[in-house]
Amino acid sequence: MSRTKPHEIVERALELSTADGCVVIADEESSANLRWAGNALTTNGVTRGRTLTVIATVDGKEGTASGVVSRSAVTAADLEPLVRAAEAAARGAGPAEDAQPLVTGTPASPDFTDGPAETSSAVFADFAPALGEAFARARAGGRELYGFANHELVTTYVGTSTGLRLRHDQPNGTLELNAKSPDRSRSAWAGRATRDFKDVDPTVLDAELAVRLGWAERKVELPAGRYETLLPPTAVADLLIYQMWSAAARDAVEGRTVFSKPGGGTRIGESLSRLPLTLRSDPHSPGLESAPFVIAHSSGDDASVFDNGLPVPATEWISGGELARLTTTRHSSALTGLPLSPSFGNLILDGGGDKSLEEMVAGTERGLLLTCLWYIREVDPATLLLTGLTRDGVYLVENGQVTGEVNNFRFNESPVDLLSRASEAGRTEKTLPREWGDWFTRAAMPALRIPDFNMSSVSKGV
């Protein structure tokens, strides 16, 4: 099976199916990585893998049921048992609440029968020498670099019994670099998302981290409280990704989320910000390209296996500061009466600003500059109150200059509430979410100025 082309596996699985409907998803995955510590490479590697998902649908008197089975390392002998397992799961299940006719009519991908795209260590051909230069500079500057670079390429083939034959190649690269002083008393982080490692330079990140370690030479202890705070793009991305993960239309209509209107309905049409913020997704956004059709391995609040192959259009979730849309499947769209808005593969916030983060610092009389957030957890779904910690550098800004590093904090904030209180948005730029980077990397955000960010308690963690 490892030599069998993925499209042939999809076709064979569809041929084997005796269900009333069938969807087959083949994911061909390859990855290459570098890891380093103390200014030296420690490991590197390349991996390959294949996962096959079979979704069988069975029509019954009470409705259509679905069965989903996914397995990796499927051999030729395993293929028929996998299809039968999906069919058995469907026959043993009750009617699927999200049942819809399988999608038809989407034009076939012209490269559906081509072999999968693959990554290799060659993706680091220019990056690796630059990393060696960064090690040398860090060593000379008395700092140590830790981190990793990872590149993966997933080619997804979707075939259905209704005739869909779709393919998507998704490259995804992340670079995380952490600089520490030799005594470990100071630490700074920077990260980047990339499609091919041609647009990231570790020497530039090292220079940025050297400046931040210099800021941390002066320590300032501050108590918990509300502070004017500059949230960098990475922190804004982490907060808004979680907000969108909580933006299912059905949940809002049923009164269970921050987007529910008191007394019934949703908050669509309400102003969420005094700034002209537009939060959008676009599968064709340059540098942030994502699948232009639905790929659903399972059903949930914002996805349905019956929607596989459904086109994903560019969508504005917040438009000019107003809530415009919530995520829907075909089922939840019909249930709520809201427009069909499939879930997204990237997230972009435009705030109309053109200032860099450095220029926003220069315009700050007194406030805090964050590096990133982590360990974000939900406290209250009704308000989307989140808690989490700052990490790898919180800096005091006075009269337009960074004057020292302050202690870390635990925060308690709702991203929806933050948007309503934001007083300035900077220039939108591609960014890597620190907390959610293992699951979601395609984001572009501005820095935001929050006049009264709630640092609820002091954290002793680094």
Strand share of the residues? 35-45%
Helical element count? 9
Oligomer: single chain
Helicity range of the residues?
10-25%
Task: Write down how many β-strands occur, each being a DSSP E stretch of 2 or more residues.
Answer: 20
SSE order: HEEEHHEEEHEEHHEEEHEHEEEEHEEEE
Q: How is the biggest beta sheet arranged?
A: 6 strands, antiparallel
Global morphology: globular
What would a concise description of this structure say?
This protein is α+β, with helices and mostly antiparallel strands. The chain has helices at 6-16, 76-92, 127-140, 202-215, 233-245, 249-253, 330-336, 357-362, 415-421, and strands at residues 21-37, 40-60, 63-72, 144-160, 165-180, 187-194, 219-220, 225-231, 278-281, 315-319, 322-323, 347-350, 366-380, 385-398, 401-406, 408-413, 424-425, 429-431, 443-445, 448-459.
